Amino acid sequence: MDKSCIGFLVKAKKAAQAAGAPGKIEPSRPNAHDFEYKEDRFKYYDSFLGSGKFAGQEGLWKQEMPIWAMNYTGRVLALGFSEEFLKKALMQVDEDVPLRGPAEYADGDYLYKCSYEGSMKWFSGREEIFHKGKLVYECIFNGGEVLD
């Protein structure tokens, strides 16, 4: 992916679900949560099912052609999880490889960790949130380029 695609993806992730509801759109499936961000020739969609246990997919289109996608699934494991903290962590998306949040982000009693293998072309990874040292959330993700 070129720099314009990556720059757009960072903006889209910050403007869509991580920011709250600004990009929320009519769901494409019953009881889904769908978010959209468009700018010039780019479109970004994020659609997921569930909340405490969830599964979803993000996609990026350039000139109406899908070029990149990421699947993710996660769950809340224990009391102490904070959706607001997760959103703060996701707003820190790494501009070099904008998959989820940064490698590490801390705020008060919370610690977010994200690791991955690969590159934007083909990757798999995991994110975790700890509250007072206890694992309270986990999410796995994978994806890559989808245009030959």
What report would you give on this structure?
There is one protein chain. The protein has a nine-stranded antiparallel β-sheet, with helices on one face. It has one domain. Strand 2 and strand 3 (about 40-50) form a beta hairpin. It contains two helices and nine strands, in the order αβββββαββββ. It is globular, with a radius of gyration of 15 Å. With about 150 residues, it is mainly beta. The protein is about 15% helix and about 50% strand. The protein has helices at about 5-15, 85-90; strands spanning about 25, 30-40, 40-50, 55-60, 65-75, 105, 110-120, 120-130, 135-145. The termini are close together.
Can you give me a brief rundown of this structure?
With 148 residues, the chain is mostly beta strands.
List the helices and strands and how they pair.
Blueprint: H1 3-15, E1 24-25, E2 32-39, E3 42-50, E4 53-62, E5 65-76, H2 83-90, E6 104-107, E7 110-119, E8 122-131, E9 134-145
Antiparallel strand pairs: 1-2, 2-3, 3-4, 4-5, 5-9, 6-7, 7-8, 8-9
Keywords:
148 residues; mainly beta; 9-stranded antiparallel beta sheet; 2 helices; 9 strands; 14% helix
